[in-house]
Amino acid sequence: CLxxxxxxxxxxxxxxxxxxxxxxxxxxxxxxxxxxxxxxEGDTGPNTGGMGAYSCADHLLPFITPKVLQQAQAINGxxxxxxxxxxxxxxxxxxxxxxxxxPRGVMLIEFNARLGDPECLNILxxxxxxxxxxxxxEGMASGGLGKVPVSFQPLASCCKYACPEGYPTxxxxxxxxxxxxxxxxxxxxLG
Length: 191
Hints:
GO molecular function: ATP binding; phosphoribosylamine-glycine ligase activity
CATH superfamily: ATP-grasp fold, B domain
CATH topology: D-amino Acid Aminotransferase, Chain A, domain 1
InterPro entries: PRibGlycinamid_synth_ATP-grasp (IPR020561), PRibGlycinamide_synth (IPR000115)
Pfam family, one: GARS_A
CATH class: Alpha Beta
Helix content: 10-25%
Protein name: Phosphoribosylglycinamide synthetase ATP-grasp (A) domain-containing protein
Shape: globular
Strand order of the largest sheet: 2-1-5-6
Keywords: ATP-binding, Ligase, Nucleotide-binding
C-alpha cells in the first residue's frame, strides 16, 4: 500500500485578508488588511500568529487594485452561498478570507470563521461613529444585516505588537515592555 499525500503548489506574492460580516443572505465587506507574521524586523525570524497589520485610507492596499479587491470579495460571497447550498444552513458570522495576489491573479489561501488577530484591531477601529457594532452582530445573528447601516472611515490604521524578548519561541516572563518613546499612541493592552 502506497502512503497517501497531498501536493500543494507553492504560491508567491503578497498576502492580504478580506473579512466579511455575513447573515447567510447578505454580506458587508470590511476594508482589506495585510498582516505580518514574522517575529523580527525585515520579515525575518520565526512565524507567529501575527506581529502587526495595516490598512490604508483608500480601503485598498499598495499592491491591490479595486478589481483585485472585488475578486476577493466575490470569493467570500461565493463561499457564503456554497455553505448554504452544501449544508442547507445559513452562514452567520464573520468570514475571514486569506488571499494571495500572485502573478496569475488572486488565489485563496484559507477561510476562517472568525475575526483575525491582529486584523480585527485595525478594521474594527475604522468603523464609522454612526455604525453600531452591537447592531451589526445582532444583524448577523438574526439575518437582518442588510438593514443595518455599516460604514468605515477613510483612515489608515496600523497595529504593531510589543512582545517580550525571545518571543515567540522563548519569551522572557515578567519583562517590561518600554513604550516611552511613542508619541500619542492609542494603546490596547490585551494580556
